[in-house]
Amino acid sequence: MALKLTYPASEFLFDIKNLPSQILREMGEFKKRNRIIGEIYCKKCFNAHILKKAREYKLREDLIIKLKDNFESEIGHHGYYLDGDELIKL
To answer: Counting beta carbons within 10 angstroms of the beta carbon of residue 30, is it exposed (0 to 12), middle (13 to 18) or buried (19 or more)?
Structure first.
């Protein structure tokens, strides 16, 4: 008896590098702008900012859901996040 290998359908695969260039640029700029020490930044604020920008750039809702699923931490701090010295409401 042979074992059959199965692979998930390609529509369920998500690679963050396949996001639009504007979102990828926002990710890099946010990390530079909001460094705490070295390369450390608040991942909760980062997640909130990227999610907000994804909606501003009218990223498809299915991609936004997949993006949120890839976040390792919460999104923002009780409905807000910091970007530089600006407090932004989600």
So the answer is: buried
| 19: region left, alpha or beta (phi > 0 left; psi from -120 to 50 alpha) | beta
What pairing do the DSSP bridges indicate for beta strands 86-89 and 80-83?
A: antiparallel
pLDDT by residue (tens digit) across 4-35? 444 444 444 567 777 888 999 999 999 999 99
Angle at 86 between CA 47 and CA 40, to 5 degrees: 45
Q: Which tokens in the block code for residue 57?
A: 């750039």
* Residue 39: other Cβ atoms inside 10 A: 8
pLDDT, tens only, 29-56 = 999 999 999 989 999 999 999 999 999 9
Dist. CA 46–CA 39, nearest whole Å: 13
